[in-house]
Design a protein that fits this description.
This protein is mainly alpha-helical. The protein has 23 helices and six strands. Helix content is about 50%, strand content about 5%.
């Protein structure tokens, strides 16, 4: 059973810089919320660095690797090279075969990034924006790659420019029918979502066709603004990447009238950049900052927007965004360094999503596959499938609104867990600990229990081992009885010195399976128990 995630007081309603104690508790909370699972060493390093330096280090978006060809059906780009700028073969059937291979490569690339992220907020930000600008994979994986690269490169950049770039991104143009929106057949899909979901938010309906922040007439005007763009080069045998193309003849040349929500402004015909003029007008409304900061808050802090939060926290975040011309980085710096963020009431206030769950098991154990390219990639696709079975397909959100756990009140993150998904969670925990692991091409992948225990503070001390494991995997302290049970599993019910003897024998001869296997097995049994505890299901 998952503990009821009701935030209890006292709550610190201050966005002033955090000045409390900086211990493993606070450092672990920060890293669990900003990464997909810290190691014990990363938590300890954060303690030693201090809050300010740790946050600054986390807020770095470094380059990532490229998706690589590994499927034998990919014959244009060589094995082990990237296909992101490769053409497709002529003929629909052959192009589809290559697309199937490239989709697998892209999926493996997305999942691998979560497993090899190091200490950076990059991947958590990417998942946030994939949920915000929710679009499914394009029919051309090169376009899907461009979309995900845009998300990564813009994740801490300028939000206004991000919206402009996303508006003419080939994947988004295809997904929300922008590529077929023209003066002869206007389509309102993107014009509606840019207001309702991407920038300003809908708000309560206050009149016929009036949603507090915009009207149906604004949607219709926006649809005209966005006319004229299409996508060229999909699965092309000559063009190395899909591109957005503007055709003036397909653009609505009329002057577009906006409602009083936008100061009754007009958007005059301005060709290929008219869409940017309209977005500039949208961003003149301070509600844009309030809307996006609310989503950031719910993702990184807590879904419960109390009156105090709406009065004392969100406005400070929004004003910071406005004062910095809609730069995202200053808002995240403010939030992650605030007294409010570290309030103990928020520790464990969110249920782990499937990706956080899976890599919250693998990453703290430094478990990264080291097979061949094919096996590593197939493994990541298997993990993708595991997460899909638990309700989250990275790259394929269920709708333009994203995953319901991020917006469906009042349950929010509790929606990740039901009678089916909790069984899948527990089954996976057993698979990768006490069972043989995930089978891939004659190999098996499971948590690296020896890596984990070797990195703890005093791995030969049973009490210290359990304390350190609790620091890594639990957002809040567990009871003394729970710790006693975990130590009983670790020691097999024997005196603590028996664990000390076993570990020291292994440490003296780590390649000897006779002495390493008992240590590994006992740690795996402890992990199996931890991964099925209600407290582990939260961050």
């Amino acid at each position: 059973m998952i503990p009821d995630q009701i935030v209890e007081g006292p709550l610190t309603m201050s966005m002033d810089p955090y000045n409390g104690t900086w211990t493993q508790q606070e450092a672990g909370h920060l890293l669990r919320r900003t990464t997909f699972g810290p190691t014990f060493q990363q938590i300890q390093s954060a303690v030693n660095l201090g809050m300010d330096a740790t946050v600054n280090s986390l807020l770095q978006i470094n380059p990532t690797g490229l998706p690589l060809s590994y499927d034998p059906n990919e014959t244009i780009s060589a094995f082990g090279t990237t296909w992101i700028n490769s053409v497709y073969p002529a003929g629909a059937a052959s192009a589809q075969v290559h697309e199937n291979a490239r989709i697998k490569s892209l999926g493996a690339w997305l999942i691998k990034r979560l497993n090899t992220e190091n200490t950076t907020i990059a991947e958590k930000m990417c998942l946030f924006w994939q949920n915000h600008f929710a679009a499914v994979l394009a029919p051309d994986s090169r376009a899907s790659y461009q979309y995900h690269l845009l998300i990564r490169n813009s994740s801490l950049g300028n939000f206004k420019q991000f919206v402009k770039d996303m508006t003419i991104d080939p994947t988004m143009l295809i997904f929300l029918n922008g590529a077929s929106n023209n003066v002869y057949s206007p389509n309102e899909n993107y014009a509606r979502e840019i207001l309702e979901l991407f920038t300003i938010g809908k708000g309560p309906q206050i009149g016929p066709g009036d949603y507090t922040n915009y009207t149906e007439n604004d949607v219709a005007a926006g649809a005209k603004v966005f006319t004229g763009y299409t996508v060229d080069g999909l699965r092309s045998a000559t063009l190395t990447s899909p591109v957005a193309i503007y055709y003036d003849i397909l653009h609505d040349q009329s002057t577009k009238q906006l409602s009083s929500h936008f100061g009754n402004q007009t958007i005059v015909a301005n060709g290929a950049t008219e869409y940017a003029d309209y977005i500039d007008v949208i961003f003149q409304q301070n509600q844009v900052a309030t809307y996006i900061c609310t989503k950031l808050y719910r993702y990184f802090v807590n879904y419960d927007l109390t009156l105090d939060v709406q009065t004392n926290i969100i406005p400070v975040m929004a004003q910071t965004m406005i004062d910095n011309n809609y730069e995202i980085l200053p808002v995240m710096q403010l939030l992650l360094k605030s007294q409010h963020f570290y309030d103990i009431a928020f520790h464990g206030a969110l249920i782990r999503n499937p990706l956080e769950l899976v890599f919250g098991m693998f990453n703290p154990c430094d478990s990264v596959p080291n097979f061949d390219l094919v096996s590593n990639s197939d493994l990541y696709i298997s993990i993708y499938d595991f997460c899909q079975n638990m309700g989250q397909s990275y790259g394929a959100p269920p709708s333009v609104a994203g995953w319901i756990a991020y917006y469906q009140a009042p349950a929010f993150s509790k929606l990740w867990v039901n009678s089916t998904t909790i069984k899948n969670r527990f089954d996976l925990a057993n698979y990768i600990t006490v069972y043989t692991g995930i089978p891939i091409n004659g190999n098996n992948f499971k948590v690296n229990a020896l890596n984990l225990v070797n990195g703890l503070s005093f791995p030969d001390n049973a009490i210290a081992v359990i304390d350190d494991l609790c620091t890594v995997f639990f957002p809040k302290a567990i009871s003394a009885a729970q710790k006693t049970l975990l130590k009983f599993i670790l020691t097999g019910g024997l005196p603590d010195f028996e664990w000390t003897n076993d570990y020291n024998a292994y440490a003296a001869d780590p390649t000897n399976a006779v002495v390493s296997t008992p240590v590994r097995t006992k740690v795996e049994q402890v992990l199996a128990r931890i991964f099925q505890m209600p407290e582990f299901q939260t961050i």
